[in-house]
Amino acid sequence: MQILPPSWRFGSSTLLTEPRQPPSTRPWRVHDVTGARLFRLFSNNMALAPPIRLLASRLLLVPRRELVVGNPDEPLPIVRIPRALQRRQEQPQSRHQSTPRPVLVRPGPLLVSARRPELNQPARLTLSRWECAPLASRGWKHRRSRRDHFSIEPAQREPPALRNRSSGCSFEDLGLDPRLLHALQEAMPEVLRPTTVQSSTIPPLLRGRHVLCAAETGSGKTLGYLLPLLQRLIGQPLLDSHRMPTPRGLVLVPSRELAEQVQAVAQPLGNALGLQMRELGGGRGMRSIRVQLSKQPSADVLVSTPGALWKALKGQLVRLEQLSFMVLDEADTLLDESFLELVDYILGKSHIAEGPADLDDVFNPKAQLVLVGATFPEGVGQLLSKVTNPDSVTTITSTKLHCIMPHVRQTFMRLKGADKVTELVEILKQHNKKDKTGPSGTVLVFCNSSSTVNWLGYILDDHKIQHLRLQGEMPASMRAGIFQCFQKGTHNILLCTDIASRGLDSTHVELVVNYDFPFTLQDYIHRAGRVGRVGSDVPGTVMSFVTHPWDVSLVQKIELAARRRRSLPGLASSVREPLPQQA
Is residue 243 within 8 Å of residue 317, measured between CB atoms? Predict the structure, then answer.
């Protein structure tokens, strides 16, 4: 089929001729003609081949003059279309479309799964410290990266704290009193063997050493210090007490919710041993504190927040003269600027032992000090040097301290701020449908401010999604018991601030949603620690919405640490003795 006739003339000039050659090798020849004429002619003839139209358009770039190609009597030169141009015309691509990189399919589980498969990392591959990592979040600061996502896949099934359960270690081997073992069996029959943290913390505490325990969230630290505390009290005679409450054991916690939880764990054990437990919560003023202490002045163990105990000490409602055991739970929070002044005052009113020998004097009791937490700042050593001899402190750390939890799936989604509400509502509705088909866990939604919790709660009310709210600006009367209702399962969704991320037991939580990405890596560790805890019966997942550029910077640090299997940067502390590796 011929596209042009053998001889096509316009006026007196021959435009194009087609030599008598086979169609596969037939070239076009150009006579003297201006680019404008040729373009108008080719533009009107839509049947021309695309390369000829492209040639006509390029001739417009030449100045308007007569194009003379040789002598009309001589053979005309041949203009050929490059093969690269032909292939480009046959397979048109967008200007911004790049050639896809070849994907090497590797069998086996993945450590990082991204939306772009070429950024996946197999579980058996570990990047070196100085090796450049192909981050899936590298370009997330650009607005075109919205709707991108990647996940850090779980590398193991059970929490790291359970890795010594099969070694045969029991509570009897740790040197606990038989009366305490009987009380533990009655109060917590489901607790059969100690975790790694408990088996490493209880023996030095029984020997009278001060202990600094730094381990991942959900590893059983609460029971690790409660059992030695109770054993010291049952083996110690009770001195004549004044009318003023004089507790022998003190557990200091940063929030009322955590105080209620520690009290709930210690109360059954204390009842079985004949010890009195008392919780002292703040937020209600001096009158409420006086009423709480007057109900049970002879409390053996006091669980309190720093603010409430500071008010009681200032008002001379409690004394710490007979204190023989003192615990700072969630010590990284208690040593923050918001609590540091109160904690310094409480430590100044306490008599901390210089060493194990000071604990033997029954008539002049000294306190044994315990600090526990999931993250620790660098100023812990300076605080200990003020109140006791640093040589008498035993430091115990976990091998997974400040690391991404290896048994929890963590997903990061790059979203625009206006899309977060729609995404959250869709996630919660899917979870409610899952509840109707079968049993499932609960959901924790974290926000960075109390106002966001309230605003988001109104939106969920409009969508008929049942939920609870917990934030620090709520009155104490409204705030009391909210987390307990969530733990009991009356509501499956809790909107909260970071007040619910420190130490609270959440074995029934299946999903943690960071609606607002946390400001620090410490906060991310504590939020993610609400799932995958010891005793959890549901698999845990953490889903984070990434919006701002500073959020992207933290996500890139988390992804890089996960790809290299290293601890998160910027969380270096003075802890230096890791827990022993168990089989």
Answer: no
CATH of region 110-158+405-547: 3.40.50.300
The tally of CA atoms less than 13 A away on the side-chain side of residue 206 is: 19
* 108-151 confidence digits (pLDDT tens): 789 999 999 889 999 888 777 777 878 999 999 998 899 999 99
Q: What is the CATH number of domain 160-397?
A: 3.40.50.300
Q: Quick one: pLDDT at residue 237?
A: 67
Element containing residue 564 per DSSP (H, E): helix 549-564
CA 373/CA 381 separation, integer angstroms = 14
Question: What is the DSSP pairing of strand 493-496 with strand 442-446?
Answer: parallel
Domain regions of the chain by residue span: 7-88, 110-158+405-547, 160-397
3-state secondary structure 283-298: CCHHHHHHHHHHHCCC
Residue 281 · residue 289 · CB < 8 Å: no
Q: What DSSP designation does 65 have? A: S
| Helix, strand, coil percentages for the chain (3-state, nearest 5) | 40, 15, 45
pTM of the model: 0.74
pLDDT, one tens digit per residue, over 61-96 is 444 444 444 555 666 666 677 877 777 777 755 555
Distance (Å, whole) CA 223 – CA 24 = 86
